[in-house]
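hey so i finaly got around to running the thing on GntR family transcriptional regulator from Saccharobesus litoralis. pasting the sequence first so u can double check i didnt mess up the copy paste, my clipboard has been acting weird all day
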Amino acid sequence: MKKRTYFKIGELIKEDILQARYRIGGRLPSERILAERFKVTRAIVRDAITMLELQGLVEARKGSGVYVIAFPMVVKEQSSAKQFHAFSKPYSTSLHAADIFQARQVVECQVAELAAMNMTKPDLIKVKNVIKQELTCKSHELDDSGFYISVAQASQNTVLVDAVQRLLSLYQSSRQWPAMRAKLFDEKARLSWIAEHQAIYSALQCKQPSLARNAMWQHLQNSKSLAEGL
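ok and heres what it spat out for the 3d tokens, dont ask me to read them lol
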């Protein structure tokens, strides 16, 4: 049986969130804009949004719009080899961001190393495009989740992609998250943050696993040090 159209639209919106087109806490485009983009009726878009609400990904706020509140997680269906997006349960906000960054160093440095070995040309282009978006976006739109997810996807390991997504969700549920984001509104901090992403990208482009690993470690270490002061 073919999947209903609204389901397909919902999956496309999930993919947009994974690629950082829509950030956590950000508002989705209006029903009209989404309907025009996907060339479907507004009723279908409405059903897709309802599906995402039931899955815990978005939240409709009366008089304001629909907002992204969680990352989709990539998991495997028990009945087939196909993949679908599901959602993790909310994490405790009692965890400190510095501890989460330490865990991210353990996972994402290995991810960067694997990405340098396994990534394809389309993967490299995807990472590059994410950095381009970071350079052109407005301060209040800053969100580097798409960068880490694109690097994880380049590793060609879906288990690691899931792990990175979970760690990002955990980080964005920490008490330090709002303050960390606020610091990136500073232009100097923003450019430094993007320069570190570019250093990781350069290592991936040169297919230098150890260099990619070290660049990711230093980037997360800098963020960890920043979080420790909050």
